[in-house]
């Protein structure tokens, strides 16, 4: 039987984001043999259609209009709703990113439907599609099903494995022209603060600093380590409150929740509120002067020592390792 | 200006979560105003003080949320409304909450609605945008700055670390991100005054809503705690040797680099 499932391919600086490929994989589970259709929205985006197909979408619909060059909830919801009207899908999957979080509830409201946000897993079990999602910032998990209407979910980056890219997959990329009416919010300026390049929520490696970093400059060695590992820099609430870094870096129950492959906590004591944001990382390394620090209870590996000694040494060792690889 | 704040009562961030009978155990737990909603309340008070008008704090839940509503009144909000759905709704979801709130607000004269960008318990961040859509007003989520000039509004929004400066107009719904402001603590006179401020309690009936109109579209079938992490290996020896060992363990044992 199966159902048709739409996937929104999210574009950032001209490329599709990884989470969109993960969303295609999730959509294939939700489709249960039905068709998976990618949707691209922008001013000129159809060229990216083939890549979505090589990750497992069967065809792609590109909605193009110059008013869609930048994301706005009004523009994107009009575009996506026209595709939904045309395709009448039984499922819809979007990445749980800033864009996905902003747009999805509006679509759910228009569809009068449920929405399972921030899913980390989807599986077929007992005749239902069961989504797993963290609650209380990962201190607990819940399993949810859709009891009525379209199966609509946003998925958290880095948790559902995408399919292997296969350039031999083929499919149709069509364009849909839509009329975009008034946009009630207009973006006047974008200030890029996240210059480090790697997005915190999608990073495979996160190097995070706490009060032990002691100053804004104290974050420098952490940035170097992150850069060698191709990772992103994060921070605890303590470091943000002390003004050592921007709040956009904060990881914890207030702040971002991250699940990288490797989390390196430097000078972080490990308050419950911070652990909630990172304890589901695959491997955790703690570096702290205080052997009694709570962070060691959740760490897979710990070094008791001064981060300003340990972190530069680590950076050097990883550099050597990268040369040998 | 008519300002509304959507507020949720949640577990204190410092609480440990335990489960009993398939549900999150609430016995003896401390409850607070959802931290992101606190920013919303603070901002609402500041907007009112600058532009005049009235701040109404609205919560959907059980009568236990009265305590947090009183705290909001003590901070400086003018009125509070509790929509008590305890008797009528079992297992409500974000559709339920948004439906109830928008039904309440739809015949009100609304200029500005503020909410937290996410609640730290359920964590779905849906209710704000859903309510804005139901009321057919624009919204901006995860804001860090709000400037109102007549009916035109300039908002700065946090987008995964970048900032967007957005122009829009009232009526408007915004959701608060950390960094928007520094929420005040209720003062003693504030707490005294709050006792006399109006706190209305409504039920579905008062909103002309039937139970089936707000019935959840999704269902939780299981709640569980993540497997407890075993304490790992704290390395020993010379610092330099520890660092070498760590890199080798991450490479060959954990295979993450």
UniProtKB/TrEMBL annotation, chain A:
Entry cofactor note text?
Binds 1 FAD per dimer.
Which InterPro entries does the entry mention?
Answer: DHS-like_NAD/FAD-binding_dom, ETF_a/b_N, ETF_a/FixB, ETF_alpha_N, ETF_asu_C, ETF_asu_C_CS, Rossmann-like_a/b/a_fold
Where in this chain does the record put each Electron transfer flavoprotein alpha/beta-subunit N-terminal domain? 5-195
Per the UniProt entry, what are the Gene Ontology biological process annotations, in alphabetical order?
fatty acid beta-oxidation using acyl-CoA dehydrogenase
Look up keyword Ribosomal protein and say if it applies: no
Q: Which cofactor does it need?
A: FAD
Which residues are involved in binding FAD?
211, 236-237, 250-254, 267-274, 288
Where on the tree of life does the source sit, at the highest rank? Bacteria
Give GO terms: molecular function aspect only.
Answer: electron transfer activity; flavin adenine dinucleotide binding
Describe the family membership recorded for this protein in Swiss-Prot or TrEMBL: Belongs to the ETF alpha-subunit/FixB family.
Q: What is this protein called?
A: Electron transfer flavoprotein alpha subunit
UniProtKB/TrEMBL annotation, chain B:
What is the organism of origin for this protein? Mesobacillus foraminis
- Which lineage do the record's taxonomy fields give for this organism? Bacteria, Bacillati, Bacillota, Bacilli, Bacillales
Q: Which cofactor does it need?
A: AMP
Give the Electron transfer flavoprotein alpha/beta-subunit N-terminal domain ranges.
21-211
The protein's assembly and partners:
Heterodimer of an alpha and a beta subunit.
| Keyword terms, alphabetized | Electron transport, Transport
Molecular function in Gene Ontology: electron transfer activity
One Pfam family in the UniProt entry: ETF
Homology family: Belongs to the ETF beta-subunit/FixA family.
Gene3D superfamilies assigned to the protein according to its UniProt record, in alphabetical order: HUPs
Q: Name one GO biological process term.
A: carboxylic acid catabolic process
What top-level branch of life does the organism fall under? Bacteria
State what protein this is by name.
Electron transfer flavoprotein subunit beta
Cellular component terms per the entry's GO annotation: cytosol
């Amino acid at each position: 039987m199966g159902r048709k499932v739409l996937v929104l391919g999210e574009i950032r600086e001209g490329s599709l984001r990884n989470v969109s490929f993960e969303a295609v994989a999730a959509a294939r589970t939700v489709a249960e043999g039905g068709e998976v259709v990618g949707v691209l929205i922008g001013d000129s985006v159809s060229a990216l259609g083939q890549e979505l197909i090589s990750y497992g979408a069967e065809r792609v619909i590109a909605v193009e209009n110059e008013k869609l060059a930048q994301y706005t909830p009004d523009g994107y919801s009009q575009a996506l709703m026209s595709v939904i009207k045309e395709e009448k899908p039984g499922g819809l999957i979007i990445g749980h990113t800033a864009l996905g979080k902003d747009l999805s509830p509006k679509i759910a409201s228009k569809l009068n439907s449920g929405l399972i946000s921030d899913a980390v897993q989807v599986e077929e079990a007992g005749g239902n599609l069961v989504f797993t999602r963290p609650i209380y910032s990962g201190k607990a998990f819940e399993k949810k099903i859709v009891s009525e209407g379209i199966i609509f979910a946003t998925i958290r980056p880095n948790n559902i494995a995408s399919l292997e890219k296969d350039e031999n997959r083929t499919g149709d990329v069509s364009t849909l022209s839509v009329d975009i009416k008034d946009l009630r919010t207009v973006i006047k300026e974008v200030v890029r603060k996240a210059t480090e390049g790697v997005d915190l929520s999608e990073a495979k490696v996160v190097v995070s600093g706490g009060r032990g970093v002691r100053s804004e400059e104290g974050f420098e060695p952490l940035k170097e380590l992150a850069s060698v590992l191709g990772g992103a820099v994060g921070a605890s609430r303590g470091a943000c409150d002390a003004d050592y870094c921007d709040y956009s870096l904060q990881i914890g129950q207030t702040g971002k929740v991250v699940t990288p492959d490797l989390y390196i906590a430097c000078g972080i004591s490990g308050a419950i509120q911070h652990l909630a944001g990172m304890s589901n990382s695959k491997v955790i390394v703690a570096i702290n002067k205080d052997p009694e620090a709570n962070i060691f209870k959740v760490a897979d590996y710990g070094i008791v020592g001064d981060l300003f000694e340990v972190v530069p040494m680590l950076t050097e060792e990883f550099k050597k390792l990268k040369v040998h690889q | 200006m008519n300002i509304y704040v959507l507020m949720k009562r949640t577990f204190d961030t410092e609480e440990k979560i335990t489960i009993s009978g398939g549900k999150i155990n609430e016995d003896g737990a401390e409850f607070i105003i959802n931290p992101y909603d606190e920013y919303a309340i603070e901002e609402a008070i500041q907007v009112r003080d600058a532009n005049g008008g009235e701040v109404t704090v609205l919560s959907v839940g059980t009568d236990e949320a009265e305590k947090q509503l009183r705290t909001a009144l003590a901070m400086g909000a003018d009125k509070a409304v509790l929509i008590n759905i305890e008797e009528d709704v079992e297992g409500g979801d974000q559709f339920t909450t948004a439906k109830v709130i928008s039904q309440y607000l739809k015949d009100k004269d609304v200029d500005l609605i503020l909410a937290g960008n996410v609640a730290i318990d359920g964590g779905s961040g849906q209710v704000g945008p859903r309510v804005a859509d139901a009321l057919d007003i624009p919204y901006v989520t995860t804001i860090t700055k709000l400037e109102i000039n007549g009916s035109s509004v300039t908002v700065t929004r946090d987008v995964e670390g970048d900032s967007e400066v957005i122009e829009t107009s009232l009526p408007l719904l915004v959701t608060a991100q950390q960094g928007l402001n520094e929420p005040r603590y209720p003062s003693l006179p504030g707490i005294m005054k709050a006792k006399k401020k109006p706190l209305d309690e409504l039920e579905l009936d008062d909103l002309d809503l039937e139970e089936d109109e707000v019935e959840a579209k999704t269902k939780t079938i299981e709640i569980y705690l993540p497997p407890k992490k075993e304490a790992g290996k704290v390395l020993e020896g010379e610092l330099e040797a520890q660092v070498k060992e760590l890199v080798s363990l991450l490479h060959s044992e954990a295979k993450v680099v």
